[in-house]
Write a structure and sequence with these properties.
Number of domains: 2
Number of strands: 3
Strand content: under 5%
Number of helices: 17
Structural class: mainly alpha
Largest sheet: 3 strands, antiparallel
Shape: globular
Order of helices and strands: HHHHHHHHHHHHHHHHHEEE
Length: 495
C-alpha cells in the first residue's frame, strides 16, 4: 500500500511544490509581489465560511493566511517541556531546515537552533542510501536475529543512545512544530521537516522490539512496541494527509509488534498489564475526516486565493506549471465561485467519512471519484463566459487535479485503528485471565477495565470484536475492508 499511496498522493497533498510555482505571485511582507509588481488589497475573494472556510488571520494583502492558522492551532499553549518535537530536534541537525525557515520554525518551540544549542545528543543516524533504507523498511515486523539482518542490526547499534534517549522522553504528551514556507508562507509548499526521521524512529523501535523478542527478551520488547505506538500517536497530532498516512503506517508496525508479543506465549500477567496500559495511553484514532475538513481543504482553497492574486498580475502567470487553462486570464473570473465549488466537493468527502459503515463510506467515495472522472472529460472553455460560470469551472479543474486520494488513506486508517484496538482487546484479555484464571467469553467482560468502549469495537461500523475459545486459547477476530492479511490475534492457553 505504501508505494501506491505515495506515488499517487505525494504530488497532491502537503507539498505540491512543482505544480504550484504560481506562488511566485505572492506578495512579500512589504506588500510587493516577488515579481516586483504591486499587488493590490484583496478585492477578488470574499472572506466568508462559504468561500474561504475560515475568516482569520488575514495577511497584509487581505487574503486568508491559512498557514498561519494551522501553525497557530498547532503551537498555541504548547509547553516546550511537554513537546516531543523538541526531543526530536535535539537528535537532528537543525541545519537541515532551510536558513530562511529556521527562526519561524524553531522559535515557537523555544528551541536553540544554533550549532551549539542543537548539539545536545549524538545525531540520529538515518539509513544510509537506498539499500539501507530498504533494509530497514522492508520485510515483516517479526522476531529476528542479528545474523539474519546484519545491515539493520548495524543501524540499530549506531542509534543505541539516541533510541534510549527518545524512549525516556516518550511521556511528553505533544508532538507539535509549526508549518513554515521558505520565506513565502503557504500551506501548499510547507516542508515537513523531521517527519521522515520520525518514521525511521518508529520503525527502529518496532524492529528492535522484534530483535528483543527473537532473543527471548520480553520486557524490552514490550517497551519498544509501546515506543513505536507512541511515535505513531505523535504523528497523528499533525495536520497534513502525508503526515497522517505516515502516522497510520507507524501505528500498523506497532500493532504488528504487539500482536507478535501477545501470540508469543511468554508475556507474564504484569507484562500484559503494562502492554495494555501503554497501548491505551496512546490511542490510535480516526482523524482523516478532521484533516480533510481542515488543513487539506484549506490547501485547495489557498490555490484559488493564489490564482486570484495572479489574476491581478497575469504577466507573472506560468500556464505550463499551473492548473489554470490559458483562456482563464482572457476574461473576468469570479473566484468566489471557485472557492464555493471546491468546498462543495470537500463537503462530499467529509460527509462520506461520517457514514455508519465501511460499505457506505467506500460507496460514496467511489461515486465521488466517478464524478471527478466525468469532470476530467470536460475540455475547453465554458460556452457561457459569465464570470461565475468560469469561476465554477476553474474550481472543478482544481478539484480534479488536486483532490486527496481519500480511498487509500481511509483504508489505511481503518486497518491501523482496527489492529491497534484488537491489540488493546487482546492485552486486556490476558490481564483478565491473570486475574480470573480463564479467558473472557465476550468483550462485555472487558468493558469495565476500558477507559472507552471504542477499544472493543471496529471503527466506523461499531461492531464488537469476536472472541472465540480455541483449544483452551482465545482468538480475537475483527475485519477491515480490503485488508490483505487476516485480522486475528490468537492467545495461547499455557500462561
Amino acid at each position: 500500500m505504501q508505494q501506491s499511496f505515495f506515488s499517487r498522493c505525494a504530488p497532491i497533498v502537503g507539498a505540491v511544490v512543482l505544480i504550484f510555482t504560481v506562488i511566485g505571485c505572492r506578495p512579500s511582507k512589504d506588500g510587493s509581489s516577488t515579481g516586483n509588481t504591486a499587488v493590490a488589497k484583496n478585492d477578488n475573494v470574499r472572506i466568508a465560511k462559504e468561500t474561504t472556510r475560515i475568516t482569520e488571520p488575514l495577511d497584509e494583502s487581505g487574503y486568508v493566511d491559512y498557514l498561519g492558522a494551522v501553525s497557530r492551532a498547532q503551537m498555541d499553549g504548547v509547553d516546550p517541556g511537554d513537546n516531543f518535537a523538541v526531543v526530536l530536534w535535539e537528535m537532528l541537525d537543525p541545519q537541515i531546515v532551510q536558513p530562511a525557515d529556521r527562526e519561524a520554525f524553531f522559535s515557537p518551540m523555544a528551541f536553540d537552533f544554533s550549532e551549539r544549542g542543537g548539539a545536545r545528543m549524538p545525531r540520529l543516524a538515518s539509513p544510509r542510501g537506498r539499500s539501507e533504507t530498504a533494509s530497514l523498511l522492508a520485510g515483516p515486523v517479526a522476531p529476528w536475529k542479528p545474523s539474519q539482518r546484519p545491515t539493520v542490526a548495524a543501524l540499530l547499534a549506531r542509534n543505541g543512545r539516541q533510541l534510549e534517549y527518545a524512549a525516556r522522553q516518550l511521556k511528553r504528551s505533544r508532538f507539535r512544530q509549526p508549518y513554515v514556507g521558505q520565506a513565502q508562507p503557504s500551506m501548499i509548499r510547507t516542508p515537513l521537516y523531521g517527519i521522515i526521521e520520525m518514521k525511521y524512529l518508529g520503525r527502529m523501535f518496532a524492529i528492535r522490539a522484534m530483535l528483543h523478542l527473537g532473543s527471548g527478551e520480553v520486557e524490552p520488547a514490550v517497551d519498544d512496541a509501546l515506543a513505536c505506538q507512541r511515535i505513531g500517536w505523535y504523528l497523528l497530532q499533525r495536520e497534513t494527509a502525508i503526515e497522517l498516512s505516515i502516522g497510520y503506517e507507524v501505528a500498523l508496525w506497532s500493532a504488528e509488534a504487539a500482536r507478535r508479543l501477545l501470540e508469543d506465549g511468554r508475556l507474564a500477567g504484569d507484562q500484559a498489564r503494562r502492554l495494555f496500559e501503554g497501548l491505551v495511553v496512546s490511542p490510535i484514532a480516526p482523524r482523516l475526516g478532521e484533516v480533510l475538513d481542515r488543513a487539506t481543504r484549506w490547501s485547495a482553497l489557498e490555490i484559488a486565493q493564489l490564482a486570484a492574486r495572479c489574476a491581478q498580475s497575469p504577466g507573472h502567470y506560468s500556464p505550463d506549471v499551473n492548473p489554470l487553462p490559458t483562456w482563464a486570464f482572457a476574461m473576468p473570473i469570479d473566484f468566489n465561485e471557485s472557492l464555493k465549488m471546491i468546498n462543495q466537493w470537500y463537503d462530499r468527502g467529509v460527509a462520506a467519512l461520517r457514514s455508519s459503515s465501511h460499505e457506505d463510506v467506500l460507496r460514496q467515495i467511489d461515486q465521488l471519484y466517478r464524478d471527478l472522472d466525468k469532470l476530467k472529460q470536460q475540455a475547453g472553455k465554458p460556452a457561457d463566459l459569465a464570470p461565475g460560470v468560469i469561476g465554477r469551472r476553474l474550481g472543478e479543474i482544481w478539484v480534479v487535479h488536486h483532490f486527496i486520494n481519500m480511498r487509500q488513506l481511509y483504508l489505511r486508517q481503518v486497518e491501523a485503528v482496527t489492529r491497534c484496538r484488537m491489540a488493546v482487546t487482546a492485552a486486556a484479555a490476558l490481564v483478565y485471565k491473570a486475574e480470573n484464571g480463564s479467558f473472557p467469553m465476550s468483550t462485555a467482560q472487558l468493558a469495565e477495565r476500558m477507559a472507552s468502549p471504542e477499544y472493543l469495537v471496529e471503527p466506523q461500523s461499531g461492531k464488537p470484536f469476536v472472541l472465540t475459545v480455541v483449544d483452551n486459547g482465545l482468538r480475537i477476530a475483527g475485519s477491515a475492508p480490503e485488508s490483505d492479511r487476516p485480522m486475528t490475534i490468537t492467545l495461547k492457553p499455557d500462561r
